[in-house]
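Our collaborator T.R. sent over the components below with a one-line note: 'Predict the complex.' Nothing else. No constraints on interfaces, no templates requested, no preferences about which chain binds where. So this is a plain run: every listed entity goes in together, and whatever single assembly comes back becomes the starting point for the next discussion.
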Amino acid sequence: MKAEEEKKHISEEEFLKNYDPSEFERPSVTVDNVIFSIFETKTGNYRKNPEQNLYLLLIKRGEHPFINNWALPGGFVRINESVEESAYRELKEETNLDDLYMEQLYTFGNVERDPRMRIISTAYMALIKPENIELKAATDASAVSWFKLTYEFLDNGKFNIKLDNGETVLNAGLIFDNEERGENRIKIAESGELAFDHAKIIGYALMRLRNKIEYTNLVFNLMPEYFTLTELQKVYEIILGKELIKANFRRKIKDLVTETEKFSDEAGHRPSRLFKFNSKVSDI
Amino acid sequence: MKAEEEKKHISEEEFLKNYDPSEFERPSVTVDNVIFSIFETKTGNYRKNPEQNLYLLLIKRGEHPFINNWALPGGFVRINESVEESAYRELKEETNLDDLYMEQLYTFGNVERDPRMRIISTAYMALIKPENIELKAATDASAVSWFKLTYEFLDNGKFNIKLDNGETVLNAGLIFDNEERGENRIKIAESGELAFDHAKIIGYALMRLRNKIEYTNLVFNLMPEYFTLTELQKVYEIILGKELIKANFRRKIKDLVTETEKFSDEAGHRPSRLFKFNSKVSDI
DNA sequence: TCAAAAGTGTTCTTAGTACACCCATGT
DNA sequence: ACATGGGTGTACTAAGAACACTTTTGA
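Returned assembly:
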């Protein structure tokens, strides 16, 4: 590497040849993907806009442990792929998509988080555009399903997540504990048939999404190419969990979007101009 | 776990007994700590305040690979400790401190990041108060040293870091590439005798510190119990890399600090009131 | 006396909040 | 006609930026 090293008794090359990688007992490493998207559902009323909701992709486990519980899609990091490649590969296996946003969320490394053995898992958060959804059929006897995600904050640091795919409803309860550091800042009060510590991971992802939507252009990754400003506002409202005032919202995001000449029709009210995003923002 | 599982052919208990954890070839997992502190150096001029600087703790490697280069303190995650415990243990081994702030930074998982073997490393950023520094003597023939850290942004996404411990000067060059995702967003142009990808990790930590100082109370962890507002402002200025206007700065942080009845003396100018921090801010 | 830093006040600009109003559409 | 959402204006408040000035100290 550096000239001075050549002078040492053994060279780096020689050192590497003699290095024994089995010297340390190793944990396994997996990735888990928290995949969000926004879908809309038509309402009965011809005047009303379709209802938009936040959705999360889960897989029903076909094996022990946590058999028949729901889990985040993920898998083991292979020895010849980077952690990111691994997350991306798993994501593609589940969603068949290329055009998506992915960011590393957090690495969960508590000793007892998997009953099988010591597993450290790096979680990723992915956002995919609704127009791109093309869900792969369930593989190896395990079901894949999008769950509508709603959540509410309670008073004493508690935080409930509800996941509903039309058949199954999962209710998870989380607790913030500011006395704790790192991974244990969020504790699972009620796992609600979510496997492993995945309720906690989902909680982390939600918080990350909530925070970053305020100061980045993350939403962009949840929107189709053309969208109305009301649709955009609704996505913000869903993620932030509060209503926004239209005029103020529009002033705030006006530099992020570009007006087009297209309009949405098919509505029992005044047609709405379609917009596009015009830039990205760095987000380290 | 759940009642329905009991009905399955094999129980979870039985499943775990037969589970073979050696089924997958596993990467090794390490932690690396980016440990920052602020030290002050007296100036010759009796009127002037001491100069404050940002420092970073590095270890001189006594072994291949990267022998004689400087590296972040860290080590392997043991099979019976969480990743956070591991980072904390390493931190204590190096600094002997309890009272510190630590947060997970990022997990670096590129395949070729360690020439020995496949190593995934979870990096942590730690902030320690200058009053607490009690540096452990160098262990196992490797030197431990605080490096003064300065940095500058260049035009085309480039970013230079200079580390100086009085004897050795390390110059690292990093490049932001917004086309890339995740770990590869920052590339190493010049490693400057920093081992492995540690220049990149330091770059990540610096960016994190810069960003979070704006919307959290992280600085608190770099300040002594009592401090003047000018000292506090200087710490902000060092980390943000720009000068701030005194009156505006004081208005901005006025709710974070509490006035005390103490004053700093020993100066060739008007004595300065000492303040304390009064609250913490959550920072997920 | 004076350099250095402590400490406060003023003015202008920008961003955020709340609310009120009019417009266009399909049934 | 009318419910629904599209679209814009106004008025107030809070936060941010730039600058100017006074005060206090030790040598």
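Summary for T.R.: Residues 1-12, 137-141 of chain A have pLDDT under 50 and may be disordered.
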